């Protein structure tokens, strides 16, 4: 069941999203060669709690970190640890914050120092595919118009869209209906309505679309070992279009 949020609920979620965006902004100061993913996790948790929120991911289904840190061929759900970031890496950081009972959720993929031209293109295309999808987020439109716009843009640039992991509704629960694939034909699925709050999060591989999960039962990696990227915003459907909640 898709839960449409009241204006008051969206106001709370706007603050949750702002805290997520502020945490991303804070972490960018520290993303450089030599730092460990565990150190980034500690910085993020401290910052989130300082803003009267709690990390959404900590303890979620047993997840040990406060954020997800996925490096290079790691797509999503990377567990923070002793891995040291190196010049030329890319790192996806997925942050969730729960404020006053409601969640905000956003992921961004960052360069570590100077990165390759291929990596730059991957990041640019994945980020732009998110915004191409958001252009289709308007009341009355079918959900998969978002999905189709993302897939079309990504594949036009010779990258591939991961199909095993999808976007989702969000609110008092971190994952709510509906599920939002980032591929598929247009004009399918439920019609978007004001008050829907959704996480749109294209996950894009430089090589084939196939992924697998490591033995830690969390970290998802590309099967071919090639780079991948992940960008995500939480949005609210409005009377005229959409509002990004995970922004400053």
UniProtKB/TrEMBL annotation:
Annotated residues for binding of a divalent metal cation 2: 105, 168, 201, 232
Residues reported in the UniProt entry to bind a divalent metal cation 1: 94, 105, 232
Gene3D superfamilies reported for this sequence: Creatinase/methionine aminopeptidase superfamily
PROSITE patterns: MAP_1
Domain of life the protein comes from: Bacteria
Recorded catalytic activity of this chain's protein: Release of N-terminal amino acids, preferentially methionine, from peptides and arylamides
Protein name: Methionine aminopeptidase
Gene name, Swiss-Prot/TrEMBL: map
């Amino acid at each position: 069941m898709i839960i449409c949020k009241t204006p008051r609920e969206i106001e709370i979620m706007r603050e949750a999203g702002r805290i997520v965006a502020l945490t991303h902004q804070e972490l960018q100061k520290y993303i450089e060669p030599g730092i460990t993913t565990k150190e980034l996790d500690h910085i993020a948790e401290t910052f989130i709690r300082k803003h009267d929120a709690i990390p959404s991911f900590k303890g979620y289904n047993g997840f040990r970190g406060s954020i997800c840190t996925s490096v290079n061929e790691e797509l999503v759900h990377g567990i923070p640890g002793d891995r040291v970031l190196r010049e030329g890496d890319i790192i996806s950081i997925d942050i969730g914050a729960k404020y006053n009972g409601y969640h905000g959720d956003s992921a961004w993929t960052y360069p570590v120092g100077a990165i390759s031209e291929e990596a730059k293109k991957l990041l640019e295309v994945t980020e732009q595919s998110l915004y191409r999808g958001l252009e289709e987020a308007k009341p009355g439109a079918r959900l998969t118009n978002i999905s189709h716009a993302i897939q079309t843009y990504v594949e036009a640039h010779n990258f591939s869209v991961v199909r095993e992991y999808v976007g989702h509704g969000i609110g008092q629960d971190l994952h709510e209906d509906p599920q939002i694939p980032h591929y598929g034909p247009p004009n399918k699925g439920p019609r978007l309505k004001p008050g829907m709050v959704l996480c749109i999060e294209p996950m894009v591989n430089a090589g084939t679309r196939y992924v697998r999960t490591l033995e830690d039962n969390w970290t998802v990696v590309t099967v071919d070992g090639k780079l991948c990227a992940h960008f995500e915003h939480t949005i609210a459907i409005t009377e005229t279009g959409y509002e990004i909640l995970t922004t400053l």
